[in-house]
Amino acid sequence: MTVTRIIDGLEQMTLASGPEAEAAARLGFLEWAFCQPGEASARAARSALASDAAQDPNSAAARAFVGFLRQATLIPCRPVRRGGRLRRLH
To answer: Fewest beta carbons less than 10 Å away: which of 49, 59, 74, 84?
Structure first.
């Protein structure tokens, strides 16, 4: 499913807020990630963010979805070994 269709659907959830909007955005993000024709990579997320629909989301759910796309553009840090143990990233 395209980013535009996902955001359009999330924009219909005008009354959703807080955890409900976050859950809907998370489902939209998973749908976006699994429906990618190729790999759901940081490059694909940057491309999705460049779409017109992602420029000015109105509903809380659509804003949260765009936030998930922004997070997907970040490159994770490598684990750092300190004191003989690996520290977790999250």
So the answer is: 84
Q: What's the gap between Cα 37 and its chain centre?
A: 17
Beta pairing partners, 86: 81
Task: State if pTM tops 0.90.
Answer: no
**Residues 10/62, Cβ–Cβ less than 8 Å:** yes
Long-range contacts of residues 44-49, Cβ cutoff 8 Å, at least 24 apart? 45/69, 45/70, 45/72, 45/73, 46/73, 48/3, 49/73
Asked if 54 and 3 count as a contact pair (C-beta separation under 8 A), the reply is: yes
